[in-house]
Amino acid sequence: MIRVLLADDQHLVRSGFRVILETEDDIEVVGEASDGLTAVDRAAELRPDVILMDVEMPGVDGLEATRRIVAGTGEDGPAVLILTTFDRDDYLFAALRAGASGFLLKTGTPEALIDAVRILSRGDALLDPQLTRRVISTFAGPEKAVPVQADARLAELTPRENEVLVLLAGGCTNAEIAERLFLGEATVKTHVSRVLTKLGLRDRVQAVVFAYEHGVVGPSRG
Q: HTH luxR-type domain location, by residue (predicted)?
């Protein structure tokens, strides 16, 4: 059973999400929160698998709540899915840096929401291909490139793992990485896991941000 916490300041929105999710036999809504601070407390109390987090809430907003939850629980904590009606790049990038594992607009379908919860519960990350392209465009654009930050953890990667990280940063799936590197998908999955572990990253979404922020790929290399 996938345990879900709903964090949104609008009661009708929470009720709608609950109705959608609880039609599924493998999903259970274990709690709700109407502000970020309550979401942090309920996350610690209920230990859900996935948190649906709104961005704009009174007091502590969803981005700060995500930071606190991720910092307090680490890799074993819940996966946070950011949900918002605002299609804004600043929310997207702030959510990724805060440690969110997925980002969806509330204008999506119920099926997309259900799929997202299941994907995050498996320890995977969710970033719509269109949003992935926006991440890459923002970090790779010469006029917007972020300052490169040196990181000793990169030296721990093998040459093959570095190749995998570059392809992850390009938004490649495991199947696409396997095809490009002439490897089996199971082998690629192992490499991805090792890359995330060595770099201390939660998921593939964080790998995209890390790669651009640390110069693994960029305007002159990606």
A: 150-215
Please say whether the dihedral angle defined by the alpha carbons of residues 206, 212, 213 and 216, taken in this order, is positive or negative: positive
Residues 49, 10: Cα–Cα separation, whole Å = 22
Q: Please state which of the ranges 64-68, 92-96, 143-147 shows the lowest mean pLDDT.
A: 143-147
41, amino acid identity: D
Which residue ranges form the domains of the chain, and what is each CATH number?
Answer: 2-127 (3.40.50.2300), 138-213 (1.10.10.10)
Token pair for 23: 């039609």
Share of the chain above pLDDT 90, in %: 49
Q: Is 3 helix (H, G, I), strand (E, B) or coil?
A: strand
Is-contact 101 81, C-beta < 8 A? Answer: yes
Interval 213-220 mean pLDDT: 69
Compute how many other C-beta atoms are within 10 angstroms of the C-beta atom of residue 5: 24
Kindly state the DSSP code that residue 25 receives in the 8-state scheme: T
Q: What does the alpha-carbon distance between residue 166 and residue 100 come to, in Å, rounded to a whole number?
A: 21
Count the neighbouring beta carbons within 10 Å of the beta carbon of residue 152: 6
DSSP string, 112-131: HHHHHHHHHHTT--EE-HHH
Q: 54-88, pLDDT tens digit by residue? A: 999 999 999 999 999 988 876 678 999 998 877 67
